[in-house]
Amino acid sequence: MAEITTFEEAVAAVPKLTQDPGNAKKLALYALYKQATEGDVQGKKPGMLNMTARAKWEAWAAVEGTSSDEAREEYTAMVRELVAAEQD
Prior knowledge:
mainly alpha, globular, 4 helices, Acyl-CoA Binding Protein
């Protein structure tokens, strides 16, 4: 796979990953993507019984205040690492 240099290339590369990066990394990618594309977390925190939505909301809230550009850079760097790990 070619070197990933842009946020858009990183977004396109994620569905092509063949190894599951694990829930923690998936949540981090989700949070950085949302921060990069929508800004700070929005809406009410989901209830305890909706564990998936709550985990996503909390991950996004954890990167609150991060600039869109910084979130894009972090997302791209994380995807680069995941792609490189698959190629090893």
